[in-house]
Amino acid sequence: MKKSAQRHRSIKTPLPLLLLIAYCSLLIVSCTNMFQKKIPSSGDNDSLDSLFRKQEEITKLQTPQQLYVAPYYSSTEIRLTWEGVRGAAYYKVERATASSEDLQQSGYKPDNFETLNPFVYGTSYTDVILKNASLDAPENKNKYFYQVSAFNTAKQYDESDPTKPVSAMLFNAPGGLKASGGASVEYVELRWEKTDGATSYEIFRSDFPSGASASSLGTVYGNQTWFQNKVSTAEQGKDLYYMVSAQNGFGNKSPQTNPAYGYARVLGAPDMPVVNLAQNSGRGHSVNEIKINWKPADEPDAYYAVYRYSSLDSSLTRLTPERGTTKTEWSDTSALKPGVYYYYKVQAIIDDITSGKALKSQFSSSDKLTESYILSPPDIVVAEKKSENTVTVKWKPAIGSEGERLIFTYNVYADNNKDGNFSSAPVRSGVPHSVDGEGFISVSGLTVNSGAFFKVSTNLSGIESAKSVVVSPAPAAALIQAATQRAYFSGATANSNGVYPVKITWKKPANEDPAFYIIQRSTSPGIGFSTINEDPLSENGPWSDVYSYNNGVYTYTDKNETAKVGRKFYYRVLSLNELKQGNFYSSEAIGYGALTHEQYILEYNKTMGSALKKLTYMHKPGSTEKLGEETKKGAIGNGTIYYYAKIQGTGARIIIRLTNYADFYIENDSTKGVYFTLNGESNTTANMSSNGTMDGTVTCTGMYPGKIYYDRVEIKGGAAGGGTYGVQPDDGDRKEINYTIIN
Q1: How deeply is 296 buried, as exposed, middle or buried, from its count of CB atoms within 10 A (0-12, 13-18, 19+)?
Q2: Which ranges of the chain have pLDDT less than 70?
Q3: 142 is in which domain, residue-wise?
Q4: Does 1 reside within a domain?
Q5: Is 471 inside a domain boundary?
Q6: Of 14, 92, 168, 318, which residue is the least packed, with the fewest Cβ within 10 Å?
């Protein structure tokens, strides 16, 4: 038994071989580090098992969760909050703005995001839209979409995907505020439109039309959008001006509305006037005047005050002088605008000598009886070139056509000068009201010899309106040549995401010479396009470092500071005439910028790192268990990654071979193609001292074709300890990138 035991103990693995296996294991770990982003180390555990567990934690940052954009937070700013992401050092906040016109588009999706702040170090952000709240600011009607991404560039983590867009609007003042005029002797009643996000409304009253020195009357809560201001006997008949401010659950208040005029009736005041439009006046019977009349009051000494509001402004404007008019009719010629509906109210007044008060009747009440407008030209007019010599002019019916469609006719005028007076006889007159399926009235067969520019007027019973805006046929579509893809330009600078600009080239349409062009970009084909050049471009400039014209070819460089890696863009060109009108877009061209060499290897590493995670031998706990070979498939197609680790002479040899290997689609959309497909090898050779070199080349195809070279990476002490990766995108030069970028 003793001999047997001694014989058993004598069968030992030689120490050099154990060391070699250990070194081999370290080299395998080092090899994997060539393709992984750096992992933060706790510093208290250097075992192989711990290191491999850390490698499993190498993922790109998670998308921030629970993005909350406070709806109707305030009248000047919008507040965002989100949950922190493990490992994130900071966050980027982006915003897309949608106007009320954008939101009317079917299937509208925000896609033109701009960076508000690329370095937000907390988990909240306040976007200041307006420095000061304003009732008339166009920003009040916009909807703002936000998305947030997580970053940690110091540790070279992949940025997170952005959150799904979340939207909010500014907190607006109540709309449509109206105060009753003489409806009661005991109170003035206010009514207004609900404000989104409001939890209460505070009511103010002033003695002055400007709303100055207003005092608070009280607050109503919930969905109540009315208020009765009780008045004393002394206040009856007094002119009062009311404003309303909304308050939300965040404790923020909206601006006050414009003042609304109201009053309580005094006992003994005249009866309410009954107002009508004068015969043949008020519904297109004049181009500059609206006439109303009313039944006289029973009081012989009564005089009258006339007020007006419109479809654009609900505030009452007094038309009559302080002492009113003693007549029972009024002709309004005060700044009337085409295309606007007007409404009138009249109050009868008598002076009470005993009390010294002016006794005002209740306001006339029937708005529909006074709805009126001046004869107006069509608001929407379009000219379309149908052939080389013929033009069709079409328009939407003028205001009021709902009731007068059998009476309105139209004239079409032409001129050779866009600034001409269009004084010649109309090229078509008496065009009847006959609309097509899209609601247009049209005249076809006009010749360009008649004039290059057109206007339309409206006729009613021998009266002709002013002429419409001038229009001209839109030029044909430009001939887009290309939008560059992954192209490098001399002197170009990449954006903060490591993406270079895109150049768009086009030519003028055949046999036409558009006056201007605008360039539009979208992240989706056919929808969501937005203009990217501030000023329309022409053959005469304005020239800049992004726009040029040479030998019939126009070139525009889209620097696109928000362009992201791995995202394709769709470009189109719109031709414009002298009036900067256009209807015809070029075909769409797909373009995207080249990557910096540093960003290129990081994007390549996403696929290589994903491939290495699928291997099992290198992740086994024992040193000897890491030796061997295996083949794993990629997520897309039949591509593979092959692993082979063996002892070679007095050192080790590790081979990693990729064949048509791919894991990701462009923008995670299989219809857009594979992001990176890898073919080639990245190998390691090392001696007993754990020093050595890497070798091999990986060829990349897909969105960013190119090559990655390993022939200058040095192995020192069982890990990458020097040298560079060679990075050579197609159409670009080879550049050496320090090994630490992904080590």
Answers
A1: middle
A2: 1-59, 112, 405, 448-450, 622-623, 718, 743
A3: 68-168
A4: no
A5: no
A6: 14
Identity of the amino acid at 524? S
Residues 628 and 719 in one domain: yes
Query: Which among 370, 396, 414 is the end of a domain?
Result: 370
Q: From the CB of residue 614, how many other CB atoms can be counted at a distance below 10 Å?
A: 17
* CATH code for the domain of 238: 2.60.40.10
> Do 30 and 684 form a contact (C-beta atoms < 8 A)?
yes
Determine how many CB atoms are found less than 10 A away from the CB of residue 106.
5
Structure tokens at 559: 């620097």
pLDDT of residue 23: 44
Helix (H, G, I), strand (E, B) or coil at 633: strand
* Residue 542 preceded by cis peptide, ω within 30: yes
Residues 297 and 428 in one domain: no
Nearest Cα to Cα of residue 373 among 346, 402, 350, 406: 402
Interatomic CA distance for residues 457 and 381, integer angstroms: 10
Q: Name the residue with tokens 């290198």.
A: 618
Same domain, 76 and 43: no
Answer for the pair 35, 605: CB distance below 8 angstroms, yes or no: yes
Question: Could you identify the residue written with the tokens 């192209």?
Answer: 487
Q: Report, in angstroms and rounded to the nearest whole number, the Rg of the chain calculated over CA atoms.
A: 38
Three-state secondary structure call for residue 570? strand
Q: Do 245 and 318 share a domain, yes or no?
A: no
Residue carrying structure tokens 């490698």 = 55
pTM over 0.90: no
659 and 537, same structural domain?
no
Instruction: Please spell the DSSP secondary structure of 182-241, one letter per residue.
Output: SS-SSEEEEE-PPPTTEEEEEEEEESSTT-TT-EEEEEEETT--EEEEE--GGGTT--EE
Output the pLDDT for position 47: 37
Cα–Cα distance list, 370 to 57, 84, 312, 377, 461 (Å): 74, 59, 16, 21, 21
CB 355 within 8 A of CB 267: no
Tokens 């091999």 — which residue? 696
Q: How far apart are alpha carbons 94 and 147 in whole angstroms?
A: 5
Residue 34 has a pLDDT of 44
Q: For residue 274, how many other CB atoms are within 10 A of its CB?
A: 13
Which pLDDT value is given to residue 655? 94
Using the 3D structure, point to which of 339, 370, 401 is the last residue of a domain. 370
Q: What are the DSSP calls for 261-283, one per residue?
A: EEBPPPTTPPPPP-EEEPTT-SB
Q: Could you give the number of structural domains in the chain?
A: 6
- Is the same domain home to 729 and 603? yes
> In this predicted structure, what is the pLDDT of residue 369?
85
Task: Tell me the backbone φ, ψ of residue 207, rounded to 5 degrees.
Answer: -95, 0
- Per-residue model confidence as pLDDT tens digits over 436-486: 988 899 999 988 666 789 999 999 989 999 999 999 998 889 999 999 999
Tell me: do 289 and 395 sit in the same domain: no
Q: In the structure encoding, which two tokens stand for residue 669, read together?
A: 């959309």
Is 343 in contact with 329 (CB distance < 8 Å)?
no
The backbone torsions φ and ψ at residue 659, rounded to the nearest 5 degrees and listed phi first, read -130, 110
